[in-house]
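Replying to the earlier thread about multi-chain prediction with a worked example.

Input:
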Amino acid sequence: MTQKKLPEKGIKKDDVLSLMREMRSTDADWRNARTWSLVYFAGDEILETSKQAYTMFFSENGLNPMAFPSLKKFETEAVAMAASMLNGGPEAAGNLTSGGTESILLTVKTARDYGRSKNPGLKEPEMVLPITAHPSFEKAGHYFGVKPVHIPVRDDYRADIKAAAQAITRNTVLMVGSAACFPYGVVDPITEMAAIAKENNILFHTDACLGGFMLPFLKKLGHKIPDFDFSVPGVTSISADLHKYGYGAKGTSFIIHRTGELRKFQFYIYTDFPGGVYPSPTMTGTRPGGAMAAAWAVMHHLGEEGYLRLAQETMSVTEQLIAGINSIPGLKVMGKPDMTVFGFNSDRVNIYEMGDLMEARGWQLDRLQMPPALHVVVTPNHAKIIEPFLKDLRETAKQLEGKGKGNVEGMAAVYGMIGTLPDRNAAKSLVLEFMDDIYKAK
Ligand SMILES: *Cc1c(COP(=O)(O)O)cnc(C)c1O
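Result:
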């Protein structure tokens, strides 16, 4: 590892900040809508509202809500607004978390502890997961000792209901559906799956990390959106990320339970620490007050009217992109996306190679695997790049025409190889080496 030490003498504020501004020069260009999925940008007015609220409460700590009644108000009111948006009743209860992953870690922990409370002999709890469920469920299972039982998706990329019913055993504590799933932007058959969960007395989580702040507004705008929220009997919890389509600060998501009784299984309390009684609602200890302030600020700043307008704009860009991609010979959008996220692949060209060529033209596209595809998360900011983006897709498709799908090089070869290695442990080792390398100071 490169040895890097603390500078002997401190550097002046302005000099430190200007050094950092320079480092930005090679970062992904989200402002000009060259990225998809990492940054959700809906204009400077919204960004500034969130930013200034964050810095106003930059130092406050949400760990102790008694010390900072303002933070307590921000969190409880933001949760209440999110719960009502998701048709939660007066019993609904939740918390603000640091992101979708934390909301999902808490979901799995809640289900495990709830399952144990019903069945103290439960040794190996299980959860039923469609293969399209977000990896944070796998991570949660790994951390908390809950075994994932995978079920396939149908031809339309939605979870297979029959397989869901068959996957339940006496050890099952949780079933999961996505609204919508990250790879294809489709909503699982939540009504049917939650009914199966209810029948079997297990918890059901709707992962609306991606769709929580999009689907309710699309529905109000008249789009046909499958039911997914607390209006569906059997849905016991929902996660929704404010830092995606809620346009909140990074580090804000909601975990909401149907009742406060269920949320009790989420909390952690230690009463015997010499440092004091330690109640903790979420995974983290210290909780940034800025995130709570920014959440409250952006939700009030946008209001229903703002979210409706942004949902409408984003869906319109999505529809234009889908039509444009489907009109390029050899390219096809996968399934029928319910919202503003989708994958597309090709039966003619190597899609990963297309990803590389697009990257060389400055477009940062996510890669899907099994099957290989490229992936788009649309934001209002993408309105300005519809034509140039489609033009580059048309040109790269033409460039690759006739080359066939094999014999690829560059990153395309690496993605292709990892996706198709029959030995998944070997795939894991490969990625492990890569990670070890990437997190070194150079
Ligand atoms: C983004 C996402 C998550 C995880 O959220 P993070 O904020 O990245 O931790 C979970 N589920 C879905 C469907 C997502 O899109």
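The chain has a mean pLDDT of 95.

Feel free to reuse this layout for your own posts.
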